[in-house]
Amino acid sequence: MTNTKAPQNILIHIIRRDLRSSDNPLFHAAATAPDEEKFDAHLPIFVFDASQVDVSGFIKFEGATNPYKSPRSQVAGYPRCGPYRAKFLAESVWDLSESLKALGSGLFIRVGKIADVLESLIDELAMKDARVGTVWMTSHEGSEEKADERAIASLCGKIGAKWKLWVDEKYFIDDRDTGLESIEALPDIFTTYRKMQEPLREKPRPVLPPIEKGSLPPLIDAFLVAPQPAPFRIPDTLDGLVGSLVAPVKDFLLYKPDFPENAQSAHPYQGGETAAHERLNDFILSGAANTYEKTRNGLLGAEFSTKLSAFLAQGCITARQVHAAMDAFERGTDPDFRVVEGFGAYMTEEAMSEDKAENPGTQCIRTELLWRDYMRLCHQKFGNKFFRLAGTQNKYELDDGVSGSGTDGETQRRKWKSPVKERALPQQTPTAQGVAEILERFNAGTTGMSLIDASQRELLHTGYTSNRARQNVASFLSKHLNIDWRYGAEWYEMLLVDYDVSSNWANWQYVSGVGNDPRSEIRIFNPIKQAFEYDKDGSYVRTWLPEVSKLKKLENVFQPCTASEEDLEEAGLADNIMVAEPVKRIDFIVDTRPRTGNRNGGFRRPGRRGGGGGSRHTTNGRGNGGDLAPVRVNGNGNGNGNGHGHTQDIRVDAPVVNGTTRGPGHRGSGNRGTYGGPRGSPRGGRGSFGGGGHYNNNNNNNNGSFGPAPNLSNGAGYSPAPVNGGGPGPQGGGQQFQLPRRGGSGGGSRGRGGAEWPSLQW
Predict the structure, then answer these.
(1) 307 labelled ligand-binding
(2) What is the mean pLDDT of the chain?
(3) Is 138 marked within a binding site?
């Protein structure tokens, strides 16, 4: 047997959420180091962290017990990582191992706490006269991640090893290129940040060149590496690895509904770097990247969105690799994309002179990649405020001195209902037990609000649900039910295959009204209206909520408690809890008469000039107003308007007024208020509403009595759709948030652009 000297300059590379060999600065640096800086042994290692995943499935010794507690969320006590992300993670780790083998290297896999595993490795190497020279790790956001980084830095200090924490480069714009002097300088509004970074297609750094086979430092001899301590054993097959991770969490719900017969997962992808690039190429080749702006709010199927979020979350692919592939398509440098319409558009004379290389689809994808960047930077800025009930903005002060203390040490805030008696305020309705029962139904998808239930069922069965559905689910829990939003965030943390700590928690805060969007508090989704808008034939709801599939009328499909007794009997739903005891009922009237006005029903995209006017559901007239946008508007202007006829409030959340939201109104005129910014009366005095009474908007407009409509227009708030003007309305103070209405709209010069709300990437 030949005696060989133990290596004295070992590089330990700890891998977490950067599960790729390509465009990975740590592997690249190890492969390209000059001779005088080369390492004589390389130890790449991934640890299934017992603080984030349940590792009890790795116990293969009879009678052995798990030395680690099952990781649970802090508020609800859900498993931290459910079966879908566990499977995806196992596949991603296995794929990286195979990729490294193909490069002449390999990957060591262990189970436990990261700092404990590293200490065990160091001790074993020292016993065999080997020395650790350097430890590398990529920086990640999260309190546990930061605690690991500090612990490892401390260990390196004790043994005299060099320690380097690398910038996480899987994001769209490198942290060093944002132009921010400090994280505190990050704007609290995404639009402001986006404008700082434009033009977006010029900002990402180039993708790193591929690693050549044999260029990485020699893989350390397995004899020198401490084995996996008992009672755990690492499987030597992919199926074994997946099974070990999934087994402890597969039965997360006691009574799980059957998988619908005709349903298919919208996220059928295996984890890993290989699958990530296959998905990216397929998405561009299918032409779906070109149409992304139009399809991104889809609900069914795989092609309406990129489905790259899970790969991005685990670092199987980088955002700049996504950008580079789109850029190769736009420039015409990748012949594989030649068959796709728009190939080489950047190189045309028109594009070079007018910068028209991006089509709306690829432009939208880049904006949403930047949104992911922004959520992570917000996490850096606000830290653990991401996980607090009051959010990053400390919303909802104490209610007349009534306070309580939650188990997380926070002061109980008003508004939020809790299923825990000790956290609930004394006057909470329903009781804590009642809230707990509602949460059980919310999680199981039996609330009686079909869009919400369909999304929750899809999530239960596949680990995925669309962005549009996620927004509605978050809004329903936090704004319709006023339940502590963290229960929803932690449910998503458990089940989402594409869970990302920064994106998930920032977006739940954003929708719940406690995040860094100053107007998110008044953004409320009406799930009935949203279903009519985005599930026009009810196919999504019928697919994932088969109980309602036999109902014929869409309004009944979307809210089965509105169906007639005969229809419910025929559908077998008469005694179903979704019908008998819906968690919440939203009265919504469907107006089936032919629509006049513009073909898009009054909806316009942000940043476009207002067009001509129709007469129903709106106010005719002209005005120097801000453009109407599907989500937010912000502009200045006044105009004269006349409105008449029936109207239906089709805001994101239509108010319920005596069971309806429309009624005949008298003709009248009024000064139209500005949209966003300082504003006046959103209309003149309101005409008759629902056949009686005049509406006073409580904005110094004493023209008529207060009708049965909610007054939300004083200060920051929604303005209900105008029924009729009843007289001139003077200017008032405050701010207005208003959504567009069906029918035409007043033309006018373009107003100041408001803060946008991109499609959320969870």
Answers:
(1) yes
(2) 80
(3) no
